[in-house]
Design a protein that fits this description.
Layout (H helix, E strand, L loop, with lengths): L4 H5 L8 E5 L6 E6 L4 E7 L4 E8 L4 H17 L9 H15 L2 H14 L13 H18 L1
Antiparallel strand pairs: 1-2, 2-3, 3-4
Helix pairs in contact: 3-4
Length: about 150
């Protein structure tokens, strides 16, 4: 569908969840409409189909959102990508290096043991993908292990 100001203004809310209406003019660009009727411009791009929200309608106009989407796609094409994602394992290595400078060796070893042993399930994950429930599951397991040991 060709997105115009009139089309965007008149998009109906779906009965549940959300629906994305894609623009015919710009690949990956569209409007996400939630069941509450909230409209936001989105851009889906890349091999992994990453989706970013550009802004809410009508705060951001269709013209501005389309220009921003073009700018983002142009930066990707020109090689100006966003910074490399950092995995938990890489962040842990950096963290342990700073701890070695400030703490006793025994404290560093204990922290490293705990983080490498009990947090294995998230080592491969990118930091921005780690949610509170991932950490809660691990700390709950630690609490159970501690209560058994006592």
């Amino acid at each position: 569908m060709r997105l115009t100001d009139i089309v965007v203004r008149n998009l109906a809310a779906p009965p549940q969840g959300f629906k994305i209406h894609l623009d015919d003019q710009l690949t990956g660009f569209g409007v996400r409409v939630t069941k509450a009727g909230v409209k936001a411009f989105v851009l889906t791009y890349g091999k992994q189909r990453e989706r970013i929200t550009i802004g809410r309608y009508p705060i951001i106009s269709l013209q501005d959102a389309r220009s921003e989407a073009k700018r983002i796609l142009a930066e990707r094409t020109l090689g100006k990508l966003r910074p490399k994602r950092l995995t938990f394992e890489d962040a842990l290595a950096l963290f342990m290096e700073t701890r070695k400078q400030k703490n006793r060796p025994s404290s560093v070893e204990a922290a490293e043991y705990l983080l490498k042993t009990y947090f294995k399930s998230i080592h491969h994950m990118n930091l921005e993908d780690i949610k509170a429930h991932h950490i809660t599951e691990i700390t709950d397991e630690l609490t159970i292990v501690r209560s058994i040991a006592e």
